[in-house]
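Most newcomers find our protein records easier to grasp once they have seen one. A learned vocabulary of local backbone shapes supplies the integers on the structure line. An example says more than a description, so a record of this kind follows:
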Amino acid sequence: MYLVGLPNPVLWGVLAFALNFLPFIGAVVGAFLVAAFGILSFDTLGLGLLPAGLYLTLTSVEGQFITPSVLGRRLEMNTVSVFLTVIVWSWLWSVPGALMAVPFLLLLKVICNNVPGLATLGNFLGPRQSSDAG
């Protein structure tokens, strides 16, 4: 955001960080906010939409390629369980719940993988890694 001249680039970085915890809608919400602010900040519509396009492109590349390649082998999760968890926690606690949904789910998965009676739920949430067996 700094390179394209959008005011408050640190704010947009913090916003991108926070919205990164919303796996399905975070990038879209962030791009919409950046687009609205960019349109209000710049003289032309094309220049105003440039930061939003850059934001959406970078968050898409990060979310689709970088993060899965780094974390994908270690934190495999059932997509349906992630989606349902985000919906339920969003309904319960609104935005804070949506931001905390995936970390709560990962915590539950780790607990299930280490408590024999919860192994079935742990298998539903994601496959057990051979390095987790112990």
Notes: The first helix runs from residue 9 to 19. Residues 73-129 form one domain. The chain has two domains: 1-71, 73-129. The chain has five helices and no strands.
